[in-house]
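TL;DR need structure tokens for one chain.
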Amino acid sequence: MSKETKNTPQANKPKFSSYWIYGLIVVIFIAISMLSGNSGLNEPKKTSLYQFSQFLKDGDIERVEIVNKSVAKVYLTREAESKEVHNKGRGSSFLKPSPGAADYKFQFGDLQNFENEINTLIAQNNLSTRVEYDTEGNVWEMLVNFFPIILIIGIWIFIMRRMSAGSGGGPGGQIFNIGKSKAKLFDEKTDIKTSFKDVAGLEGAKEEIQEIVDFLKNPEKYTDLGGKIPKGALLVGQPGTGKTLLAKAVAGEAKVPFFSLSGSDFVEMFVGVGASRVRDLFKQAKEKSPAIIFIDEIDAIGRARGKNNFSGSNDERENTLNQLLTEMDGFGTNTNVIVLAATNRADVLDKALMRAGRFDRQIYVDLPDVRERKEIFEVHLRPLKKIDEELDVEFLAKQTPGFSGADIANVCNEAALIAARKGNKAVGKQDFLDAVDRIVGGLEKKNKIITPEEKKAIAYHEAGHATVSWMLEHAAPLVKVTIVPRGNSLGAAWYLPEERLIVRPEQMLDEMCAALGGRAAEKVIFDKISTGALSDLEKVTKQARMMVTVYGLNDKVGNLTYYDSSGQSEYNFSKPYSEKTAELIDKEISEIIEEQYQRAIQLLENNKDKLTQLANLLLDKEVIFKDNLLDIFGERPFGKKEDVEVIA
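>> reply
TL;DR here they are.
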């Protein structure tokens, strides 16, 4: 066999389905029921007891066969077969019974009376007619009679197979295997091809999780010194940061079997199924050790017990969690099975699950910084076939603050779709910027009907945001302003926020003032306000409340925080402060917002002519960029050089 022939993949043979057998059986039974009537060619002609007596007296009957003590089959003599009375009603010759078949048949009542009557007629007429007896068992009739029962049983089996489809424990997912684990096993030799080089960014998390790989590869290195291999690691982070990808990379690096499932896969409508699946999962993992069990979204079963079970009844989720705690505590030091779990709500997990000895390590997977975003972009740009050579990946990383790995992957895919929609031969810089705008602000709605008065109000509103943010030292630098409707907004302004680890009060106040610049501009120009500032008011109200109740940045409330990192406060019906304190909190929040609102008004009053010039430019061009603000306002008055490239 040649090398080329060996490498040629064989055609996939169609899988045989047992449903064909069920269908064939049903067709057979239907055919039997249709053909089991008395319409066959060899069926004897029906007659009556009176006619039978006349035929017997005339000497036309050669023999009578009594079948099953209830039916009489009549066989005529050769002379009688030619009589017109017996051929009447048969039609053409091909309808005559075949040789050896009965000519007539009929049912009679009592067997003893029938025998007496036949014997009397034979004796009176000196006939040679014979009387014979036979017993027949009709298998087809029995099957037809039992067909409804068989059909009901078949339908029941079909429904049970469909209900339990997908449950583990063998092909077809029988109902008896519903307690089996639904974890998907990825074989280390064929299925797992992800490694740490496929995971861009997350340097801190990768460094911490590298130890787990070392534990699985070289367990003796630690056990020889008396150390115990960790039993679990919890990956905590916001959605899309790469927790699941990191877990797969651990399995790929360690070259061990990888059991993957979601926390919701344990819970079923049947009582006890969750605990049974947990037992079966750990049993399979121990048999294939060293191995990794990965439970995604573990908060589905790992929530704090007793917090939301107000009825006091049996809680299947709590039983599943109890079994999971027992299995993790039952590991020996040499089982070489490590449990990885991922969640973005670590605050609601049960304390027993978080203690040492179960999830020994908590690995925080944060949003990527600008350097890590650049690495992630480089990974997701590889699948794109044609990219503009002038594309600056570092520029893209700076334009996407706060984006997770999943968001960046979405940006790359959206940019490719936009380039294809435009008919471009390569994906360029503007395609990526349009993709970011699409994801952040939504799809442009240029055909939305807006009156000239509304358009003017929107222009001044957005110009107010841009003007105030330009005049404030700690406000985020502007990138682009548009009055083209996007998504649910009638206008939008794009900023490039500074990535800070800590935030000071003056920085938060400047951001709140810039957010209120839109409403302040409406007040300054039109002396009226509108509903267009809803999202701005929501943002500043949340920021002011965080300053007062969470970060302790208010002098009158003091250095207090009412934030509960455990997440248990969400189950309480009472506030952690008195009504008097609640009034003080509301008053301070209102004063902070009003102070920044008046500050924004004052800034716009001082720069009213420039505000008007910027709004008119917006009405003319609909979209303006940072260089337009430089032409109108000049350099920002703080002596800070913004490390931001202007979008052209």
